[in-house]
């Protein structure tokens, strides 16, 4: 067992994957000499060389397009999008090429590419640096979309994503990069397309992922003093969804709250609420409620504490489920 931050755990996972397979490449802006703006790739270019850890031009579309060509030649590229808001110039390559080519070729062509995206707010950044674009990619057929929330999953899930023959969008919660936990490198990881119950409970099922998981765990601890019990589930995989675990939990608790940083309107929570309502209608004691960001552009850093769903907003949403 080793105590690692999330950033260091992903770094160690990348290192292990590169040691295991010399076809694994890392590409992105400042990933080499600088080691990434969050130092997630720190030391990898020094140890594996510039031909495997490649500092690219500032051209996200070019990064993904080049990775597609490399994947077609047998490589397993790991592309870093430096900040979430920078992924949109690459959207054409991701949506119209990366997601479609395996089906277009009737499965003859595989694109084992991982697109790493630091996501969400909470770090006092400027415009375009605090987005939550997961709904765009979960809506895109042909992509696996996963989100780690802690160092254990950061270490194991990045390796699982790299080994996967499907294209994977890999979200990393940037405000949790410095959170620490003990990581067992030799442990058998759970499949990376499965959700995980991280806190059992009896009264309300709380669904979260990425940066909001920690907030929801804090909410569960807070309401315990009031005699209420929250079951907190880390979705981990956003597409495909592990609906079996979700439905089993909601059928026991009778209530469900979905939390994410992205705007509530048309966010992933809407899909979850619809699915839970369809599958668990006769078990629900209250409507499925959502808590998230507002339908506005992400605000300047001085206002982000008012924008981001915090402990109080999660607690308020939990309280509202008992008003029905």
Annotation keywords:
5-stranded mixed β-sheet; 324 residues; 7-stranded mixed β-sheet; alpha/beta; globular; 12 helices
Characterization of this structure:
- Residues 4-179 form the Transketolase-like pyrimidine-binding domain.
- Its EC number is 1.2.4.-.
- It comes from Sphaerisporangium dianthi.
- The chain is of the alpha/beta class.
- The protein contains twelve helices and 14 strands.
- The chain has helices at 6-20, 44-48, 60-72, 91-98, 101-104, 134-138, 151-163, 212-224, 243-253, 268-280, 304-307, 311-321, and strands at residues 2-5, 24-28, 53-55, 76-80, 114-119, 144-147, 168-173, 180-183, 196-199, 204-208, 230-234, 237-239, 256-263, 289-293.
- The strands form three sheets. It has a seven-stranded mixed sheet, sandwiched between helices. A five-stranded mixed sheet has the order 9-11-10-13-14, sandwiched between helices. Strands 1-8 form a two-stranded antiparallel ribbon.
- It is globular and about 60 Å long.
- The termini are far apart.
- The model has no long low-confidence stretch (mean pLDDT 97).
Brief synopsis:
Keywords: Oxidoreductase, Thiamine pyrophosphate. Helices cover 35% and strands 21% of the residues.
Q: Strand content of the residues, in percent? A: 15-25%
Rg over CA atoms, rounded to whole Å, is 19 Å
Strand count: 14
Secondary-structure class: alpha/beta
**Sequence stretches where pLDDT stays below 50 over 5 or more residues:** none
Approximate helicity band: 25-40%
> Averaged pLDDT, please?
97
Instruction: Characterize the overall form.
Output: globular
GO molecular function: oxidoreductase activity
Enzyme class: oxidoreductase
Domain Transketolase-like pyrimidine-binding: 4-179
Cofactor: thiamine diphosphate
